[in-house]
Amino acid sequence: MTDLSADVVIGDFTVPFVVSRPYLNFRICGGDFEYKTCLNVVVNGRIVRSETGRATELLHPASFDLSDWLGSEARLEIVDEPDGCLRVSDIVLSSTPSVATVTQPLYAEALRPQLHFTARQWAMHRLNPVEREEGWLNDINGLVFYDGEYHLFAQRWNKCWIHAVSNDLVHWTELDPAFFEESLDTGVQSGSCVIDVDNTSGLAVPGSGPGSGPGSGPDSGPGSGPAMVAFWSRNDNRSQCVSYSLDRGRTWTHYAGNPIMDLPERDPMVFRDHRRAQWVMVLYGDDRYQLLRSDDLLHWESLDSSISDSFECPDFFELGVAGSDESRWVLVRGDGRYSIGSFDGRSFVEETSQLQVDGGPNFYATQSWAAGSTTAPRRIQVAWMRGGHYPNMPFNQQVSIPCDLSLHHTADGLRMYRTPVPELETLAQTRHTWPTRTLSPAVLDADSPSHTSVPTAPDATAPPSTASVSTTPDSTTPDSTTLPSTTPVSSSDLVDSQADSRATWVGPWRIGTAWPLLRITCEVALAPAAELALDICGTRVTATSAGIAVLGGEQPTITAVRKLDILVDTTSIEVFANDGEASLTACVQPGHYELTLTASGADCTLRELEVVELASIWPPV
């Protein structure tokens, strides 16, 4: 055990050392302010481990795992800036940690979603964060596509923007947080991000351009641009601020001229209006959105136009109408409701009422990417799946599956559709298909036996076994189909049992206690009085001729359910009807490992039923 302890005074303090043991153990207390009141380990000029005082006056034990840098020269850095205080004691190198490590590998935790993005355990790879929710994320922010990368930002409370990148919208790499609040409790709230391709702000060229006043020059940061410019609000809900990056989002600088505006509003959403060569901002405050314009991203003027009956976290974009050369503008509010209309560069004229595209209980604060052509970009939406519960997990909350957006003419007028991005097909593994099947509520014979045992095909990976399903005859019992749990599977595995009004399979993805990752698709034909209920691993989804519903969410308006596309993850289910005409986004807790389809009221016909086993988006552990 090597002792690195030293007396510390207020201010920064550094101690060089060689990483001769795999763990650095210490005790710490004081301010909970990353980069301001913290203990850091620096290797090759980069902070590789960091810990704050966690807002307590009691010294608590902590450990850094430095095994990746054994034998390297490092620097211990104690930062105690005026924003708070910090106490550090008993700093030693050791062969064992002073606290227990996280027992499950990163991204392999029991409730970790395997198809949806979640934040990694600790912003700075902390070894033992105890009850801290460092893996928390909330409002989606700043979605931007640049140089082949999709950038995903999200709030971690109001302390920082977490940051992840992907080149396929499926597999994500989380980077260090993009930027933190400027000083203790000033906050960094929701906002947006743009690429200043033409350097209208001057931020990419130190000392020149319209940004040559406060904020350019020495603080312009590393890299050669173009500037990736983020807009956000402080905690006072009136200071609108800018941070920017000149190296593809890897490092960020707070603009020295912050705040760029002082208005009693928040959640700035900024986009490029290419037709009129201007920047436009949508800003939320007092139950309405205000519209502003700018030539340089740093100086803004009001368009004297507002949109009433609005609610935080706006998204505003132009979207093409499928099958035509038409386009409309879509305004999406924080609760996911949207309206369609026209925008002339100064005002938005709504042509519809507020509409609902997703009726699930966990769909909030949507934002979207614009990728491809500037005249007709692909528009891809995600949402914060607010309200999920992940007990005893070192992460909290998840992001919905990326969905392509499009406008379609329907009997009720123009509507926005959401469909899972085609890139998800890269996750497809084993496919299971079944022929057309009509589920009919049975009229039972009085002489029918009281129960039926249904054999299953042998599992190729397990000893031969038999599964039984027992039911009691009841004239009201609906017709039910449970998909098989064994592979290979064929249509011969389906057993019709009118005796007990059930036909039962055992599902192909039931492998021990592993939670399934599935995509379930089928075409459906429902009689007017029919209801198709799907029990998906313990979560009930219903479809009728009028719509779909799941858990406690509202039922979106829909003409008739014709197709279903369902994504099943560790702790969520997303349902899409009619190629995206309506959707349901829901967080769930794992239940059993079977899929049951039940018809009631009238006949339900299923065509081209397919269940696809999916791979995880995370690297193998």
User: Given the helix and strand composition, which structural class is it?
Assistant: mainly beta
Radius of gyration: 28 Å
* Total domain units: 3
CATH topology of the largest domain: Tachylectin-2, Chain A
In CATH terms, the superfamily of the largest domain is: Glycosyl hydrolase domain, family 43
| Largest sheet: number of strands, sense, barrel closure | 7 strands, antiparallel
Q: What general outline do the C-alpha atoms trace?
A: globular
Roughly how many Å apart are the termini? 31 Å
Low-confidence stretches: 5-9, 123-131, 207-221, 443-513
The fraction of residues in strands falls at 35-45%
How confident is the prediction overall: mean pLDDT? 81
Number of DSSP-assigned strands: 43
What's the level 1 CATH class of the largest domain? Mainly Beta
Contiguous helical run count: 0
CATH architect. name of the largest domain: 5 Propeller
Helix content: under 10%
Summarize the structure.
The protein is mainly beta and 621 residues long. The chain has no helices and 43 strands.
